[in-house]
């Protein structure tokens, strides 16, 4: 069954053609990853499919009655909504009821709460509420009553993602769903979508995510669509085969064109009856040979400055914001050419840590000694700010007119071409760049200053896979030091020698390996702990069984027998009292104070019933 049919759609902005006459289908339960370079129209294509934007021509057809969930790259959420309202904005009656129930619970509105409990019972909404709580909990969304206007961009993206997941649509259209998620959230989402029974069309640059979630890849290249069955690994292999075939085909076309060109030149200019089919064939071959462009690549052979033996030393470093501890008596000596990755959940202090190193945040106590030869290159989320009315080339020229690359000097224009900014793009205004192109431009401005110590805070967000691959290669060959904070597991595995794991509350673990090796180590540790627990449990069961065999040999004392008999009647009486109070609370005739007292009494009764039941079970072992 086909969920989505895309027929011959085209889209351009002025003279910029994004895609032309592309067609594809998304069938039921297909999970498709969409790949293209930055600025080639991935997000625009998703907007067109989701009905958020029109196309120049072509048609989008959705299956009748299909429910579509769409996650934008930069979600636009009403700032006056609360978190819970925004999360369940597009869902039905149950979700809206749960939103009201959660608000009443948070506000302690007892009079409204009783009515909402009855409505939850009537609609059988408790299981649905548990699922909502699970999704929100996994995405670290807890303050349900907070307003959207008080949240960061990353928090808004997670709320928008939660909204789509809670909706449980038949077709999910997701634009960069892993952005602003920490590694724990990414791995949970990866597992969630792997088990998702609907269809999925997704843009992401997380290659592990693509490999483990998708069963087909669609690539937009040269304004056309190419499909590859299988995951990201299959895509790499089959794309390479396509490029080799295309290169061989183009080489043959160029060879034939040379022969045709020779024939054309040998014909008399005045000969009017020259074979028309040969002339037509010549121009077709010329067009075909010219169509094969050399694969563009981002060249990052930036010359780094000499770095001495002393890099930096941290001694007894302490930092906290109120009760939130970032570092606690942290010691570390950085070595030459060291490449460190920093991982950890959001809010554990990763960005604060590197800002202390750079002198932008002052530690509460301790010292940081920096070597005299260290020259920083800092890529941060806050640094991605340009004057939108400037041209791309002027952004670079404002830093330097010429840039040293390897053993030569490049002009600003030549340098930008290394970063996939052709001359026509260089004279475009910054506001016309896509999010990924802006990040590529920012990366360019950081690297052109010849740093010997790179500090990269989330450099992988919104960069296309081609740029990521070249950046990885550059960092591996970089003759300097690197600290990188990233949630891109593939990127971290390729670049870093070891990782700092921020566990929160000042607990920082230095692990001698990459991220996958760390996860494998964690799995082994959990397995070993589970084995120890299982062995202890087995021994305890054997001990209990042995005791049970012993205790059955004796009878209850007279006092224990009387206690055993009384427990049954006491438990029965408390159960009756509990049922009676619940009926009173459901009557709607109690005032708030009485309702609160009755609620407290129920809690006491439940605890007492549990304790007496456990004692009754204990004594029953001795009953013959």
Give a description of the structure:
This protein has 624 residues and is α/β, with parallel strands linked by helices. It has 4 domains: 235 residues, P-loop containing nucleotide triphosphate hydrolases (Rossmann fold, 3-Layer(aba) Sandwich), CATH 3.40.50; 42 residues; 202 residues, P-loop containing nucleotide triphosphate hydrolases (Rossmann fold, 3-Layer(aba) Sandwich), CATH 3.40.50.300; 63 residues. 47% of the residues lie in helices and 20% in strands. It has 20 helices and 20 strands. A 6-stranded mixed beta sheet has the order 5-6-7-3-8-9, with helices on both faces. Strands 14-17-18-12-19-20 form a 6-stranded mixed beta sheet, with helices on both faces. Strands 2-1-4 form a 3-stranded antiparallel beta sheet, with helices on one face. Helix 3 runs antiparallel to helix 4, helix 5 packs antiparallel against helix 6 and helix 9 packs antiparallel against helix 10. The longest helix is centred in the C-terminal third of the chain and has 37 residues. The radius of gyration is 32 Å and the shape is globular.
- Summarize model confidence as the mean pLDDT: 84
The rounded Rg comes to 32 Å
Task: Determine the strand fraction and express it as a percent band.
Answer: 15-25%
Sheet with most strands: 6 strands, mixed
Going by CATH, the homologous superfamily of the largest domain would be P-loop containing nucleotide triphosphate hydrolases
Terminal CA distance = 65 Å
Q: How many strand segments?
A: 20
The CATH topology of the largest domain is: Rossmann fold
Strand arrangement across the biggest beta sheet = 5-6-7-3-8-9
Number of helices: 20
Q: CATH architecture of the largest domain, please?
A: 3-Layer(aba) Sandwich
- Helix percent reads 40-55%
Instruction: Count up the domains.
Output: 4
- The helix-and-strand class reads alpha/beta
User: Mind telling me the CATH class of the largest domain?
Assistant: Alpha Beta
| Uncertain segments | none
**Shape label:** globular
């Amino acid at each position: 069954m086909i969920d989505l049919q895309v027929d011959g759609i085209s889209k351009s902005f002025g003279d910029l053609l994004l895609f032309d006459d592309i067609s594809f289908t998304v069938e039921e339960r297909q999970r498709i990853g969409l790949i293209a370079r930055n600025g080639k129209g991935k997000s625009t294509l998703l907007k067109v499919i989701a009905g958020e934007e029109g196309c120049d021509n072509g048609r989008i057809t959705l299956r009748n009655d299909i429910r579509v969930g769409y996650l934008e790259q930069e979600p636009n959420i009403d700032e006056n909504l609360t978190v819970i309202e925004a999360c369940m904005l597009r869902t039905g009656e149950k979700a809206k009821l749960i939103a009201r129930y959660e608000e009443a619970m948070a506000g302690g509105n007892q009079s409204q709460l009783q009515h909402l409990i009855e409505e939850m019972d009537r609609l059988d909404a408790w299981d649905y509420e548990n699922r909502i709580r699970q999704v929100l909990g996994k995405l670290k969304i807890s303050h349900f009553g907070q307003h959207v206007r008080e949240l960061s961009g990353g928090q808004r993206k997670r709320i928008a993602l939660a909204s789509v997941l809670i909706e449980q649509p038949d077709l999910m259209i997701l634009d960069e769903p892993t952005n602003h998620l920490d590694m724990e959230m990414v791995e949970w989402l990866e597992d969630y979508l792997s088990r998702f029974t609907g269809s999925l069309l997704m843009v992401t640059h997380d290659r592990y995510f693509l490999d483990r979630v998708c069963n087909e890849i669609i690539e937009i290249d040269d304004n056309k669509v190419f499909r590859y069955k299988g995951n990201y690994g299959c895509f790499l292999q089959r794309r390479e085969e396509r490029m080799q075939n295309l290169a061989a085909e183009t080489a043959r076309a160029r060879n034939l064109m040379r022969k045709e060109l020779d024939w054309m030149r040998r014909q008399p200019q005045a000969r009017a009856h020259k074979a028309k089919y040969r002339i037509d064939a010549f121009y077709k071959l010329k067009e075909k040979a010219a169509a094969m462009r050399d694969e563009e690549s981002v060249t990052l052979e930036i010359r780094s400055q000499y770095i001495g033996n002393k890099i930096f030393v941290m001694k007894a470093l302490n930092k906290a914001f109120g009760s939130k501890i970032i570092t606690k008596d942290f010691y570390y000596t950085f070595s030459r050419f060291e490449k460190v990755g920093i991982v950890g959940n959001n809010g554990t202090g990763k960005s604060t840590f590197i800002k202390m190193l750079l002198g932008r945040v002052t530690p509460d106590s301790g010292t940081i000694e920096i070597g005299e030869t260290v020259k920083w290159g800092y890529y941060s989320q806050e640094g991605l700010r340009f004057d939108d009315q400037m041209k791309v080339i002027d952004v670079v020229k404002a830093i330097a007119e010429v840039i040293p690359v390897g053993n030569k000097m490049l002009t600003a224009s030549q340098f930008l071409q290394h970063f996939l900014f052709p001359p026509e793009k260089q004279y475009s205004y910054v506001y016309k760049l896509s999010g990924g192109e802006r990040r590529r431009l920012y990366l360019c401005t950081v690297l052109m200053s010849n740093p010997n110590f790179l500090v990269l805070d989330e450099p992988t967000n919104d960069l296309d896979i081609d740029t990521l691959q070249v950046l990885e290669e550059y960092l591996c060959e970089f003759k300097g030091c690197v600290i990188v904070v990233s949630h891109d597991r593939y990127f971290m595995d390729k670049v870093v020698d070891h990782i700092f794991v921020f566990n929160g509350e000042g607990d920082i673990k230095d692990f001698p390996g990459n991220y996958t090796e760390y996860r494998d180590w964690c799995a082994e540790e959990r397995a070993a702990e589970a084995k120890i627990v299982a062995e202890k449990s087995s021994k305890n069961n054997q001990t209990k069984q042995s005791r049970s065999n012993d205790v059955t040999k004796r009878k209850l004392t007279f006092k224990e027998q009387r206690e055993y008999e009384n427990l049954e009647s006491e438990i029965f009486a408390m159960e009756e009292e509990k049922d009676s109070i619940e009926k009173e609370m459901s009557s709607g005739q109690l005032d708030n104070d009485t309702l609160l007292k009755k609620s407290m009494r129920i809690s006491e009764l439940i605890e007492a019933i549990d304790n007496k039941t456990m004692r009754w079970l204990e004594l029953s072992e001795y009953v013959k």
